[in-house]
Design a protein that fits this description.
This is DUF4407 domain-containing protein. Keywords: Membrane, Transmembrane, Transmembrane helix. This protein has two domains: 154 residues, no CATH class; 210 residues, Ferritin (Up-down Bundle). The chain contains 13 helices and no strands. Helices cover 75% and strands 0% of the residues. By secondary structure, the chain is mainly alpha-helical. The longest helix is centred in the N-terminal third of the chain and has 62 residues. It is rod-shaped, with a radius of gyration of 51 Å. The two termini are 85 Å apart.
Amino acid sequence: MSDDSHPSRQEAHGIRHARELEGHLSWLDSFTGAALGVLAVASGIYTYLGVSSLLDDNGALSFFAAMSYSVAVSVGIFVFWSYLMRLLPAVRTMAARVGLFFAMLLGSLAIIAMSSWLNAAALAGAAAVEQHMATTVQTYQRSLEQANAAAVSAQGLERDVARVRQSFEDLSEQEATGQLSGFAGEGAVFRLLQQKSDELSALEEQIESYDPLVAQEFERGNAILSRMRALTVEPGPVEPRSVTFSEEAVQLANVITRLRQLSVAPLVRRAANDLSASVVLPELDGSDAETREGQSATIDSVLTVLGQRAETLRQAAEAVIAMPQPPDTTYTPISTADAVILYAGNFVPSWAGAISIDLLPAVLVLIVAITQSAIRTARGPADTADSMSLAELRSAVRVLREVEGMDRAAPATERPAAETPASDRPAEEPRRPLSAVETNRPAE
């Protein structure tokens, strides 16, 4: 035999390396199926918990529905990864590898869609609902503060009204001494100034009456917010807390609406419009034409000042009305699965764990595929006989000897008839003549 028939030193080293990797794969394959089964069962358990949280009924039908779904998920995950664990490392063409890899990617997406999000709901569903409640509390708090700020700013218009009222009272005092029209006493100009002063005084008293109402509603809203915060962090099942939280949210929404209604800015705006538009001019009571003419000129001046004061007051009311109003906030109870999806960014570790328990076998598939490729590369073009181990050669030799022994141990009775001795042949019986019936001829 020439030297070309023997493997080279490098080929022998590759064969030993390939045989070592095959031994490792054989040992790992002994418990890989059990490991896949454990992962599939664990995923099925969390899937059952996630499905149970979505079902409203807790009866037997819901139990069997959730159980059947979780069992189907466990079986599907186990079969899917078992297929890929066997087939993907075994294929050799690039087209087959790409096709199976695409199938693995598509199956992974399907597993995430049917199982992983439910696993995340089971892992972080209650925390996600609590996060939803906490976010709602913050939204309600901002709305309450905006509504209270608008109401308090409207109450601040009382100072503007008081300033305008005080200016008319000062003018009326000046008119009483004759410093405006030159006619001392409580004449036509005095009565006009006093009329507008009384209107502004009534408006001021009405605004002041709203102060305790605004403070009371704001205090009530803060008390409701405190109870809602307590429900957010209170231990125990989240579902009954969510129901109580909804009731508190309805009451808080009513408080916010009440605060918006207690804003006196629209009232002040209407009063400012009426201040200059609805003027009852008193009858001029001067004793002579010159006095009446002076009263008329003074009334015109008063009306001009009245229009200016009314415009200033109206602009102040418009500024309060233009303040941003609190948005309409409504708490909507959601399920644990919806909460996990809505606040997925806040529960990245839970999502990572839920997906990893389903897609971890993908890493094992890639490891086996890379190892099988390394084995094929290490073997190279070596002959099958060169890659056989000593134990395999001994087994092959033993089988060959058994086959050869069976061929040599054939019985003598199987020899051909031509070689049988004449003495061993059975004696021939004497012939007898054939009858007419046997020869099909009539007897003569």
